[in-house]
């Protein structure tokens, strides 16, 4: 069977995401304080050697990634005639890290003050957890992910999200001292409070795509039907 280029790109993209967001320490890849890693060192990792990843292929993956997950740039020491030398380039994931970075704000810009609301997309099992705990949580990552829109993979909102949580950004800033940021690929991020939480007091409403408004004004408006309760989270979507 001939190789599938699209499948190869997806496989490499997933491997890059894991390494740059979560697995660098375990895999022996050094990250700078701002999350950047040397491309030459990354290409020498056994997993990428096995995938046959080259610098031109890496550039293609970064360019074609529809979620704009990666940032690739020349190192400060790179000369004009070294544009084909992977040792002179750096790469990082634009957001989604669970690895502790001492300078996460270097990846981000402050969310403009005129943005009043943001939306967190999630799934029914996570919604049940949010109600039970009274908050959204970072769940082991550096930030809670939100969007300024309701759909679109580049905006921080999964197109298949079942539940939309509308966060009152203005109130969270004013009353909770919560900071909000924007990543290079347009995802709205917040670390929440000192415990990594964003309380329901800063949520205006929660809407199900199937059932309409579920929660509003501090109370449950519509209970989830029994057939939607106790579901498993979809694979790879365990972050609330």
UniProtKB/TrEMBL annotation:
InterPro entries recorded: Ptrans_KptA/Tpt1, RNA_2'-PTrans_C, RNA_2'-PTrans_N
Alphabetically ordered keywords of this record: NAD, Transferase
Keyword Transit peptide in record: no
GO terms, biological process: tRNA splicing, via endonucleolytic cleavage and ligation
One Pfam short name: PTS_2-RNA
Gene Ontology molecular function, alphabetical: tRNA 2'-phosphotransferase activity
Reaction equations catalysed: 2'-phospho-[ligated tRNA] + NAD(+) = mature tRNA + ADP-alpha-D-ribose 1'',2''-cyclic phosphate + nicotinamide
Keyword NAD (UniProt): yes
Signal peptide: none
Name by which UniProt lists this protein: 2'-phosphotransferase
């Amino acid at each position: 069977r001939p190789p599938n280029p699209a499948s190869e790109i997806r496989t490499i993209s997933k491997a890059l995401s894991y390494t740059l967001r979560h697995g660098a320490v375990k895999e022996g890849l050094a990250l700078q304080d701002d999350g950047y890693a040397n491309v030459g060192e990354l290409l020498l990792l056994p997993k990428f050697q096995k995938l046959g990843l080259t610098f031109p292929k890496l550039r293609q993956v970064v360019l074609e990634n529809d979620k704009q997950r990666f940032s690739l740039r020349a190192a400060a020491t790179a000369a004009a005639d070294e544009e084909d030398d992977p040792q002179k380039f750096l790469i990082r994931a634009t957001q989604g890290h669970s690895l502790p970075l001492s300078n996460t704000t270097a990846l981000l810009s402050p969310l403009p003050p005129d943005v009043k609301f943001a939306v967190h997309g999630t799934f029914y099992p996570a919604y049940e957890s949010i109600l039970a705990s009274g908050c959204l949580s970072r769940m082991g990552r550096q930030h809670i992910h939100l969007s300024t829109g309701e759909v679109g993979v580049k905006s921080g909102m999964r197109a298949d999200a079942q539940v939309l949580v509308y966060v009152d950004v203005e109130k969270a800033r004013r009353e909770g001292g919560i900071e909000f940021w924007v990543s290079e690929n347009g995802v709205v991020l917040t670390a929440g409070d000192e415990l990594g939480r964003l309380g329901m007091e800063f949520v205006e409403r929660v809407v199900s795509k199937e059932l309409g408004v579920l929660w509003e004004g501090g109370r449950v408006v519509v209970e989830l039907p029994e057939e939607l309760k106790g579901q498993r989270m979809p694979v790879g979507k365990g972050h609330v």
